[in-house]
From TrEMBL:
Entry-linked NCBIfam families: ahpD_dom
UniProt cross-references to InterPro entries, sorted A to Z: AhpD-like, AhpD_core, CMD-like
Secretion signal span: none
GO MF assignments: peroxiredoxin activity
Gene3D superfamilies associated with the record: AhpD-like
UniProt protein name: Alkylhydroperoxidase
TM ranges: none
PANTHER family: 4-CARBOXYMUCONOLACTONE DECARBOXYLASE FAMILY PROTEIN (AFU_ORTHOLOGUE AFUA_6G11590), CYTOPLASMIC PROTEIN
UniProt source species: Pandoraea eparura
Record key words, sorted: Oxidoreductase, Peroxidase
Carboxymuconolactone decarboxylase-like domain location: 23-93
Keyword Oxidoreductase: yes
């Protein structure tokens, strides 16, 4: 059950966060990458609401379901390109900043695949989903009802 309707309680920050989130769909990062990063951070944070939303959005974008099913084991598969792997490692390091303050080798690998703007955009995107995860978890955002026929 929702603890507090944070959207109603603080609409301006919610609107600004929404605008910031929208930016990442048109910022020039490769198609689908932001959804993968947002989904991975949400998995790490244990945010059911955001996991559900980003799986749904990724499927609508045409991301192969297998890539979503195996995202939490991305290191064990060949389903992700070297650039995606660098971005996923970066996402994990930034999300879990308390576990090593984003190690230099993770940044070096990212730098090999992305330019300064892409790295900055990616980092803002990860910071943004971490903020959304914290809001949804703190206030216990409920999952939307599953479509009919889905259990």
């Amino acid at each position: 059950m929702l603890r507090l309707n944070y959207i109603k309680a603080a609409p301006r920050p919610y609107e600004h966060m929404g605008a910031l989130s929208q930016y990442f769909h048109d910022c020039g990062l490769p198609d689908g990458l932001v959804e993968l990063l947002w989904l991975r951070a949400s998995q790490l944070n244990g945010c059911a609401f955001c996991i559900d939303m980003h799986v749904t959005d990724a499927l609508k974008m045409g991301i192969e379901p297998r890539r979503l099913h195996l995202l939490d084991a991305w290191r064990e598969t060949e389903l992700y390109s070297p650039a995606e792997r660098a971005a996923l490692a970066w996402t994990e390091a930034v999300t879990n900043v308390q576990d090593g303050h984003v190690p230099d080798p993770v940044f070096a690998d990212l730098r090999a695949h992305y330019d300064d703007k892409q790295i900055a955009d990616m980092t803002f995107a990860v910071a943004t989903i971490n903020a959304w995860n914290r809001m949804a978890i703190a206030f216990r955002a409920p999952l939307p009802k599953a479509p009919q026929g889905v259990r």
